[in-house]
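@here heads up, posting the sequence + SMILES for the S-adenosylmethionine run so it's all in one place. Ping me if the SMILES looks off, I pulled it from an old spreadsheet.
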Amino acid sequence: MFKVEQWIMAAVVVVAMGGGAVAQEPAPQEPYTPTIGQAGKDVIWVPTPPDLVELMLDLAKVGPQDFVMDLGSGDGRNIIAAAKRGARGVGVEYNDDMVALSARTAAAEGVGALAQFVKGDMYEADISKATVMALFLLPSNMEKLAPKFLALAPGSRIVSNTFGIPGWDPDQVAEINDGECESWCNALLWIVPAPVDGRWTVEGGGVLALNQEYQKVLGTLSTSGDPAPASVAGTLNGAQITFTAGNARYTAQVTGDRMQGTVTRGDQELVFVATRDR
Ligand SMILES: C[S@@+](CC[C@H](N)C(=O)[O-])C[C@H]1O[C@@H](n2cnc3c(N)ncnc32)[C@H](O)[C@@H]1O
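bot reply: prediction finished. Complex structure tokens:
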């Protein structure tokens, strides 16, 4: 994971990014050239290094089926790199000059039809159609955006340069291991879990009560005939839930208020279906 120096560097940049006044915008030039550290509305501009852009897109398994969004898209590099993998994408950026620069670069690199850029505020953007969010924002920005992330379709992926979403552990962390990377070496991945919190009636008899915290679930399973409820502990990978209860292992696909899959006990495998009580 992180070396001590990287944490120090990250901490320094967190302060600088939040401060918003590290460097002044250069006087308008032609062509426009952004300056690392230039002020932004809620976070300064620091670009994600190209190797890390690719690692983030690898981690999210970005392909032609995806619709990728970047909030605070800077010079457009995440969306342009995604477009080169065949994905459609939209970058939302508050700085007009950066929006225009991104569009020019996308066109020059032959992906203008797939990669689009709009002037906007990250907190106002409609991200509901995104299958992947590729981001480089501060934890404070991520925290404010987390409810919108959780409302994305289950299985949508969020990848971030270095910074986390407070309270929500990443599903995976990858690091650039070339022996030379000194800062911005880590990519974090979250997979949006299906919402499963609540009380479910198990077909054939039983009640499953689930308490969900992001991709983790705890609860109880009361089965008719059993003297006491069994403790439940499990995880979600998008719409797939896996949990154990007593000596049984459950795996099911969640679709809205229904989950269907199998329960395995020893060498016996049976169908498992539950519907959420409303
Ligand atoms: C750390 S940079 C990341 C740039 C790019 N995503 C990358 O990975 O290279 C953050 C960007 O967010 C932009 N920004 C700051 N506040 C914003 C807001 N409220 N809405 C949209 N963009 C914003 C800044 O102008 C800057 O370009």
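MO: Residues 1-12 have pLDDT under 50 and may be disordered.
MO: One more: The CA atoms of residues 69 and 133 lie 5 Å apart.
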